[in-house]
Amino acid sequence: MGKTKKTKTAAAWSLVMMGAGFAATLPFQQFGWARLLAGSFEAGLVGGLADWFAVTALFRHPLGIPIPHTALLPKNRGKLTDALVNTVENNLLHKESIASKIADIRLAELVLKSVEKGIRTPEAVTFIDVLAKRLVRSLPLAELAPVIAAGIKRQATEFDMGPLLEALARQAGARKYDQLALDYALEQTESWLLRADTGVTLGTLGMQAVSGLQVSGLMQFALNAFLGYLNEERMGEMIRHFLLDRVAELQNEGHPRRQAVLDGINTQLIRLATKDTVKEGLNHWKNTFIDSWEGDAAVSGKLEELRRHLLDYMEDASYVTVYIVPLLDQMLSDLWRNTELLDKINSWIVTGVTGVVEANHSQIGNLVRENVNRMDDASLIALMEDKLGQDLQWIRINGALTGFLIGIVLTGVRMLLDYSK
What we know:
Organism: Paenibacillus kribbensis
Largest sheet: none
Order of helices and strands: HHHHHHHHHHHHHHHHHHHH
Shape: rod-shaped
Pfam family, one: DUF445
Structural class: mainly alpha
Number of helices: 20
Protein name: DUF445 domain-containing protein
Transmembrane segments: 394-417
Helix content: over 70%
Keywords: Membrane, Transmembrane, Transmembrane helix
């Protein structure tokens, strides 16, 4: 604005100088040099005034006089606005040029670089923290619980207990669970056999079993003799010592009878696990339990408990820098290495942006029109003069100087013609 005022002042002074020069040389017309200068100053004054009129007529009526074909800008404001909008839409910012420029920009890479630069800033950490907590708090657990419970029930119902039972039977031998079970049973048996009342119990049962035998003849005589020798105490001690010896044999890991018992156990377990009635019974028990399970309430309670624990852990924002930021860094690093995916993302962004530009291209012209229409004539003229005033004022200066030079030539020619006569 300052340069425009200076140039306008210089243009005004050019007219003053031309007018002053013309007036100063008029009294000396009898001299040739005075006539030459007077003609030059006259032509410069005319040229300067003509250009002043032309420049002024663009924006307003010269001297406020409504001369025809002046104040061109206010009179043709609508045409100028339409021309400006058309130029911007169809020449400067037409859709094809915008789409071409957007296609040349690797928008995906620019976005990734911006994310990488800003991801560790305090503002980004705070934003991620707020977003994560809001996400956890807004999870619709009441709506999720029935879905999760139904999924658990469906998966549990479809799960067949047969293969699991067979795997458990085989794992019993592989992990030596059969030995642990046998040793536990033998320990309990040995403990029971060593109790004081066990002998009496075994003796009573033994005597009753022997007395109940139905034999005749010589065998009956031998049995009676045997019963006369034994009593419940002796019978109990005999049975107990016999059983303790068998327990000791089974507790000995190198004894063949122990291995035979273990083989028998494993065989029976596998046979039991592969039995259809057992598998059907287990599946029926499982499905009955699942049908009676109140899953919605149980899952909802667990989800609410999980949310409380998670929010307690998220109380401070340290989890963002410890877990989330490194995870995002790894994701960005993987994305940088995946050039094919990066190209697809860039193509998707370009397609989306181009589509938005094409769909709203007319808004560019509307924006230009709205901004122009928002200004009154005085503001628009001031803007034009501010942007173009310096060059327009130079037209006035150039007009005065050009007229002065042309005046020298024309006056010189006229003087030569006068002298030739």
